[in-house]
Structures are given as C-alpha cells and as structure tokens.
Amino acid sequence: MKSIQLILFSLLLILTSSSIFANNDLQLKAEKAYSNKDYKQAIALYESILKEGTTSYKLHYNLGNAYYKNNELGKAIFNYELANKLQPNNKDVKMNLKIANEKTIDKIESKENFFIIAIKSGLVNALSTNGWAWFSIFSLIGCLSFAFMFFVSNQLLLKRFGFFFSGISLIVFIATMVLGFSALDDKQELNFAIVTNRESKIREEPNVTSKSKFSLHEGTKVSVLESNPEWTNIKLENGNEGWIKTTEVGLF
C-alpha cells in the first residue's frame, strides 16, 4: 500500500514540476518576445500561461504592459487593475495604471464631490485591512486604559487626563473601525468591469435591437449590476445605466 502511495506521489510531483517548468519556459519566451517588441507574441504567451491556471500580479502587470505597447488600452487597464487587486501597494502597477487611465477617452464625472471622494479614498487606502484592525485594537486598549485611570486615580489632574484621552481614544477607535470596514468592502468588491472594446454601444435592454443610450470607449471603468454570458448591466459614476455585451468588457 505504501509503495502505491509513493508511486502516486512521485507521479504527482513529476506532473507538477513539468507544469511549473513549462510555465517558466513560456514566461521566458514571453519576456524575450516583449524585449524584441513582438508584443502580439508576448500577449499570446502570457494569455496561454493564464489559461493554464497560473496567476500573479507580475503576470498581469507584464501582460498589461504588452497590451499597452500593442495599443490595446482597455485590455491593458483591465490587467493593471487585476495586478493592482493582487498587490495593492505596488508602485509600478499604480503608476502604469495611472498613465493608462489618463489616455482614456471617457471622463465620467461622479455625483459625489471630487474632494470628498479623494479624501475618503486617501484615508481608506492609508492602511491595509490588517493595519486598520490593529489600529482599532490599540485605540480600544488605550481607551480602556485611560478610562481605568480616570476611575481609580485620586488625583484631579490624572482624572482629567484619563477622561480626556479616553474620549479621544474612543473617537479614534470608532473612526478606525469605520475606515477598516470601508477598506474591507473595497477589497472584497468584485462588481466592476473595464470596457475592452474600442467603442461599445450601451443599450436600454439586453438585445441588439434595443435603442442605444450612449457609447463607451476602451479603458472606462464601470460598476456591474448583473451579468450573464451574453449581456452585462452596468452603471456609471454619474448614475447612467445600460446593457453592454459581456464579450466587450473585462469582469473582475
């Protein structure tokens, strides 16, 4: 019985090793194609690695670069977004995503105030979800410690000190909890898509005979309300909604 298990384990190890070596070989070929400015070949090789089930921020980042160099802006932004999702604090990914987004045609104005959105986004992204969790724990410990000082101290100065800082710590605790949950929601948010077609018609209903409401161009980021293999219901930041062919967007 042990010999059979050993044989099966050995076979599994060989198959896994073969797959890893094959993917490494494809990646080297893709990098060489990119260096030689053969971007179409690099794209084909990177896509074949993804089809094998291998994924990483670097793979999507490199694929995004290849699409960008091949003038396929929508697919470049889609892969930069995937890379950013896998490694949110990578400066190279964020920089390339910013550069690519600046080249998009559609400039959708949000209903919310721009400065409010910027401040909120900056605060939420200042720390990771784990960072906000630890921050809230320490602020709660501080609140309880200062409250304890207030109740047990006999000196008026220490009582005032404990009361004041326990209140401040409580406010910080509540704020970090709110920001932490906001960061968690952003991290778990999956209902977004990138328009990958050069230009897509957004229709009133999910069929080609329905009236076209407006057009979107490659690289535009949209919210996804619902999706099926043929049509996806989207919403823009300005509140406009419509249906787009699922093949014309990259979902993530």
What does this structure look like?
- The chain is of the alpha+beta class and 252 residues long.
- It folds into three domains: 2-101, Alpha Horseshoe (Serine Threonine Protein Phosphatase 5, Tetratricopeptide repeat); 114-188; 192-251, SH3 Domains (SH3 type barrels), CATH 2.30.30.40.
- Helix content is 61%, strand content 14%.
- It has eight helices and seven strands; from the N terminus they run ααααααααβββββββ.
- The strands form two sheets. Strands 6-5-4-1-7 form a five-stranded antiparallel β-sheet. A two-stranded antiparallel sheet has the order 2-3.
- Strand 2 (199-203) and strand 3 (212-217) form a beta hairpin.
- Helix 2 runs antiparallel to helix 3 and helix 7 (129-152) runs antiparallel to helix 8.
- It starts with a helix and ends with a strand.
- Residues 8-21 have low confidence and may be disordered.
CATH architecture of the largest domain: Alpha Horseshoe
Measured as a percent range, the helix fraction is 55-70%
Q: How are the strands of the biggest sheet laid out side by side?
A: 6-5-4-1-7
**CATH class designation of the largest domain:** Mainly Alpha
Rg: 25 Å
Q: Indicate the structural class.
A: alpha+beta
Secondary structure elements and their pairing?
Layout: H1 2-35, H2 39-51, H3 57-69, H4 73-86, H5 91-101, H6 114-124, H7 129-152, H8 156-188, E1 192-195, E2 199-203, E3 212-217, E4 221-227, E5 231-235, E6 241-245, E7 249-251
Antiparallel strand pairs: 1-4, 1-7, 2-3, 4-5, 5-6
Helix pairs in contact: 1-2, 2-3, 3-4, 4-5, 7-8
